Amino acid sequence: MDRESGYNNLIVSEEEAKALVEEGWHSADLHLHTLFSYDVLPVPSLHPEALYRKAIDMGMGYVTFTDHDTIRAHQVLGERVGLVSGVEMKIRDLDLVGHTIHVNVYDLDGEEFQELAAIAKVDADLKAFVAFLERRGLPFVYNHPFWFEPGERPNLRSIPEVVKLFPVMEHNMHRVEMKNRFAMTVARRYGKGLVAATDSHSGAVGKVRTLAKGETFREYFGNIAAGRSRIVAHDLTVQDLIDELNGWIELIFNLEGTRLDVSDFSTGFSHLDRLVRTLASERIRRRPGVYQAFERLARKISNTGIPASIYLNMENSIIPQIEDFMMAKLL
Known about the structure:
Helix 5 packs antiparallel against helix 6 (about 125-135), helix 10 packs antiparallel against helix 13 and helix 10 packs across helix 14. This protein has helices spanning about 5-10, 15-20, 50-55, 70-75, 110-125, 125-135, 160-165, 175-190, 215-225, 240-255, 270-280, 280-285, 290-305, 305-315, 320-330; strands at about 25-30, 65, 85, 85-90, 100-105, 140, 170, 195, 210, 230. It has 15 helices and ten strands. Helix content is about 45%, strand content about 15%. The chain is α/β, with parallel strands linked by helices. Strands 1-9-10 form a three-stranded antiparallel beta sheet, with helices on both faces. Strand 2 (about 65), helix 4 (about 70-75) and strand 3 form a beta-alpha-beta unit. The protein has two domains: about 5-235, TIM Barrel, CATH 3.20.20.140; about 240-315, no CATH class.
């Protein structure tokens, strides 16, 4: 199968994905967060053990957790069937890029993680970071290339040069359709592999996933990089965001009597962070009447779709700039 035909048939249905697994292909959700990420609720259902079991029960051929700048989930789990170490690392190379980018790295050990962390935080040198990955033969992915840290001014002109450094790009379930379409266009333009991943912070394992052959993870990833893969894909909608926020609310309110420490929880969106901290407050939770009123209010606000619409508007606000850039530079 050549790369062009691979792109033409890249996205498959659930039924087609099931047939591929029956033929011996392996599936994986290559971007998942556990309670060891700072922007994940610290609840039992998001512990790595629970998420690993959930992924295995779903038939995932490989399981990996990509918490923000930590491999704690894998240190806790140790050796498991199908488990592949992973981490999502951010690096802000102001000279080459101009804004922060996120990179998923897989199949690394503790020493390699520490060396990468030093390059990212101290040197802030993307080329040195990638050179280390290539020397060690570590699989890595350019995550959500058209998402930018809150408050940062993106340098769109740097993206083609960044893409050239990566073997694989990401189609991210938590990004809007246009951003994922742009990511696919860039991947095709530069001959890069593509993965589909949930980037879930709430336990939605495997809603999207990547399929390829490979009896080892390295072989599996090599087939993805070569374009010999398929994806089950989904783009962010208002209903997805409503469901996720309701899921967070349910997680919190199902833990009556359990202390919920959200002191380190931060999504980067102040209104959402404030809501979560209010719901988790011991002062509120010790007062059943007030607590129930807050639960009803939180669900009512969530179900209006207003918080979801605000987030989508933020996601879409940069689309005209990206579209102009794509038309001028890539299309």
